[in-house]
Write a structure and sequence with these properties.
This protein is mainly alpha-helical. It folds into two domains: 15-55, Orthogonal Bundle (Arc Repressor Mutant, subunit A), CATH 1.10.10; 68-177 and 192-208, no CATH class. Helix content is 50%, strand content 4%. The chain has nine helices and two strands, in the order H-H-H-H-H-H-H-E-H-H-E. The chain has helices spanning 15-28, 32-39, 43-55, 74-89, 96-109, 116-121, 126-135, 149-154, 157-174, and strands at 139-142, 198-201. A two-stranded antiparallel ribbon has the order 1-2. Helix 1 runs antiparallel to helix 2 (32-39) and helix 1 (15-28) crosses helix 3.
């Protein structure tokens, strides 16, 4: 069901066509079968639409098939997406498992009706997470670069200027020529743990 593909075109009649057919039935007094054949709408479906208009029944979707029920509304999911973007930007990206736990905690806090499996495992299901990523194409599962929090917070203009000022004074004081200057890095050596994959912003060149 996660990758369900529709096999028929039922329920895809434009709402404008349905409204014109209803208007013909109610105002001109024509039969439902005749009007249904005229506008290529199933007779039973057209009869149901006419009854809804007669009784003015309250419903979320007037015509066609209703959307598959989501746990969160579009506005609530937008807030969750914004939080995930912010978390990845400040080097605190959440793993897919953490996102599922966060979704369960959010639904519980907001008293939203959730599937029984969420309550049993205390996290959202994998089907929900897969559908969530499909609905929001700004998110993707990324492999972040291992980043030291101390180096990230210390890498700013003031500290860089102070380093090169001290470096220049040292070269001048000791009379060191540039043929004695070597450039080295710590390739193959890391001082931080290897991070797991996180949910981050799609298209961003580098994620820490």
């Amino acid at each position: 069901m996660r990758n369900y593909v529709r096999k028929t075109d039922r329920g895809k009649t434009p709402s404008e066509v349905i409204e014109r057919a209803i208007d013909v039935v109610l105002t001109e007094g024509r039969g439902i079968t005749e009007v249904g054949e005229m506008f290529q709408i199933p007779r039973r479906s057209l009869a149901r639409y006419v009854d809804k208009n007669k009784n003015v029944l309250p419903c979320k979707q007037k015509y066609g098939y209703s959307k598959i029920r989501q746990v969160f509304t579009d506005e609530e999911e937008a807030i969750l997406v914004k939080y995930l973007h912010r978390a990845a930007d400040i080097y605190f990206g959440l793993s897919p498992l953490d996102v599922r736990k966060l979704a369960f905690q959010l639904a519980t806090k907001m008293n939203i009706k959730i599937p029984l499996s969420w309550t049993t495992k205390c996290l959202a299901g994998p089907d929900w997470f897969s559908s969530f990523l499909k609905r929001h194409n700004t998110l993707s599962i990324r492999k972040p670069e291992a980043t030291s929090l101390a180096r990230t917070s210390s890498f700013n203009k003031h500290n860089c200027d102070a380093f090169f000022d001290n470096y220049e004074r040292l070269l001048t004081r000791e009379n060191i020529s540039f043929d004695c200057v070597w450039n080295m890095d710590e390739t193959g050596v890391t001082t931080v743990m290897q991070p797991e994959k996180i949910v981050g912003r799609r298209g961003q060149k580098q994620i820490g």
